[in-house]
Amino acid sequence: MAGTQKSPRKEVRRPVWAEVSLGALAYNLEAIRKYVNPPQEKRKTPRKILSIVKGNGYGHGGPEVAKALEKAGSNWFGVTCTDEGIAVRQAGVRKPILILTSFVPGEESRLVEHDLTAVIHRCEQLALLDRAAARRRGKKRVEFHLKIDTGMNRLGIASGDAECFARQLGKCKNIQLTGIFSHFASSGVFTESFVGEQTGEQEERFYAALDRLRALGIDPGIVHLANSAIEKRDEAEARLPLKPVMSLRSRIISVRNVAAGDGVGYDATFMAQRPTRIGVLAAGYGDGIHRSLGNRGNVLLRGKLAPIVGIISMDVTMIDVTDIEGAEVGDVATIHGTDGTQVLPANRVARSIGTVTSDLLCAVSQRVPRLYVR
């Protein structure tokens, strides 16, 4: 038996692909919506969900997953730059799209043309956006969000610069503030330390800036400060069990017997301690298998874990299939994701090599076709 998963295309091609489950994606969105709108709060207006689809949707395909999320009821979308926003818009998405790192001078007209919502993180950007909005000559003012720097020291106006922002905004007649936010620097750290206390301090600075803007007569619009990392990881995962959306797969293209004492791969970093069967997968770090998984990680094969051995090459990866009965050329290996009832979650794989899930998912390269399934 050569595995139960199918390759994404009928024509013969290199057997590596990423399956993206749109059903799991919709399930996760609804689970998050319920989580942030607990029934005991009895809110008249439910909290909105802004789905971040930057970085090609964290490797899943930005325009494709944005379309699926809009159909499933996402209220907003977030991307890095104007080009990403245009790609999502041209895919047919009609909901608001927030450009998280804003625009560079000269981009503002394209941003306005495609109805994208700019983030202002420097006061001088207001005049540029206002002029672009004026050239459009529409009756409705162009909307934007304001980013406040509360301690990340990366992007955003200083929390004490509310007066400067208010003065500059007062000169602009063609744009309108409809949202304000900040970004936590250490939201995943909960220790009693400087870093662990940083989130609380940032929150205080944010609300102080918000109060000052309101005192200056500025309506902030939507207030958002709740990126997903703010929840304690283990607690959140227990209360909010989500489904893996992407499964990265490849097939075995060669099986060979290696004698005890022989090395496998570059620099022979794996030495066989017994007669060993080595399977070679048609995928390497050039496809998105993180190089750090060499001699540390596993893949799912025939419902069992098969160790990754040796240094991961650009185009192939070796696995030890000695203990996988019947393993043969053509078998499908799952690098991370689901395989029937078995799951090898990307977040656990990422933690095992000291990185973050987004690093693992964004590494899945353009040469790997995405197969969208229900």
Outline the structure in words.
By secondary structure, this protein is of the alpha/beta class. The protein has 2 domains: 22-239, TIM Barrel; 246-373, Lyase, Ornithine Decarboxylase, Chain A, domain 1 (Beta Barrel), CATH 2.40.37.10. It has helices at 22-36, 54-58, 62-72, 82-90, 108-113, 125-136, 162-170, 194-215, 233-239, 346-352, 357-362, and strands at 16-21, 50-52, 76-79, 97-99, 117-120, 142-149, 157-158, 175-181, 222-224, 246-258, 263-264, 270-271, 276-281, 298-301, 304-309, 317-320, 332-339, 342-344, 370-373. Strands 2, 3, 4, 5, 6, 7, 8 and 9 form an 8-stranded parallel sheet that branches. α5 (108-113) links the parallel β4 (97-99) and β5 (117-120). The longest helix has 22 residues, at 194-215. The chain is elongated and about 75 Å long.
Q: What integer value in Å does the Rg equal?
A: 24 Å
Gap between N and C termini: 25 Å
- The run of helices and strands is EHEHHEHEHEHEEHEHEHEEEEEEEEEHHE
Q: Quote the average pLDDT.
A: 92
Percent in strands: 15-25%
Task: Report the structural category.
Answer: alpha/beta
In the residues, how many domains can be counted? 2
Supply the number of helical segments: 11
CATH topology of the largest domain: TIM Barrel
